[in-house]
Amino acid sequence: MISPLLVPAALAFAPVTAEPAMPVPQQAIAGPVVAGAADPVSASPVVLASPAPRQDAPVPATQPAEERHHHAKGDPLEGFNRTMFGIHQGIDHAVFRPAAMGYKQVVPRPVRSGLRNALSNLTEPFIFVNFLLQGKPGKAVETLGRFVVNSTFGVGGLFDVAKTKDFKLPHRPNGFGTTLAFYGVGPGPYIFLPFIGPTTLRDLLGNSADDALLPLVAGKPFNSMEYQLITGGIGGLDLRAESDADLRALFDGAVDPYATLRSVYLQNRAAEVEEAKGHATTAPQQAAPELTDPLNDPELTGTQPEPLPPQSDAPELRDPLDDPAGSSAMQTPAPASQP
Q1: Which of 184, 287, 325, 329 has the fewest CB atoms within 10 Å, i.e. is most exposed?
Q2: SS (H, E, C) 123-166
Q3: Is 125 within 8 Å of 146 (Cβ atoms)?
Q4: How many structural domains comprise the chain?
Q5: Which helix (H) or strand (E) holds 38?
Q6: Nearest to residue 323, comparing CAs of 301, 338, 339?
Q7: In this structure, what are the phi and psi dihedrals at residue 169, rounded to the nearest 5 degrees?
Q8: Count of CB atoms within 10 A of residue 143's CB?
Q9: Distance between CA atoms of residues 149 and 169, nearest Å
Q10: What is the DSSP letter of 334?
């Protein structure tokens, strides 16, 4: 008599065929099937149902491997984002960077600087509105004064005369995304999109509101598709050309360029939000421009001789982004020599 414990093991290694290995008697087909202890042929179909889970036991071992796919904190769409990042990098290497470098070589520096100032001057109105929404009338008035000075004395914003010592009205970046964060709206999931770059759901919605303000209020020509394409193209090419060296330095030494850019953007935005909330407790730092795409210069290192500790109490991402070069070797004074 065959032990029931050996039947599943034997069936697991036996080939599965459409017909039984032994010929089935005609009476077994014609009459009802009765499972008997002495009839191994009729008993085998009853046992076939039990080995199926054991035969498929190795298969579920591969499924948890896919389910265990790790994504960084704040980046639940990491698989999608990495795909978009790869597409963007391919387009950048093939088209965008060569076009930006050509723009930098062909267009003289004073012309590029003037266009950059003019486009920046057009952002001052929605910066003014966001300072009002954040309850900061003083900075709102300064921003409005900067816009008026550059629009008049600066010939439509071509020259940034407001930042000179005569006026002392520097550019202060702000936006509706920062206003939402000011009132406690979380960043939401991290998102990377081609031609938009690194952002979050909150900043994506906030930037869309900022971009729609001027066309809605001023109308033509700011609401025309031609204006949007021309200004977007010039601004993108100029930004990509001016930040090329910094981007190469950022990506060349990175083990994971996607994770590096993600950390730079998220940490930079966290610092900007903390500054907008007035949580800075040390000497004021030079504000780094917001990375609206991977073409912007993060300027994280600055020109300070020693790196400062993080000013934001927001948790940092633990991925291959942290710069180990941030800590310098401590030098201890040598003991006085004994006579």
Answers
A1: 329
A2: CHHHHHHHHHHCCCHHHHHHHHHHHHHHHHCCCCCCCCCCCCCC
A3: no
A4: 1
A5: none
A6: 301
A7: -120, 85
A8: 26
A9: 9
A10: P
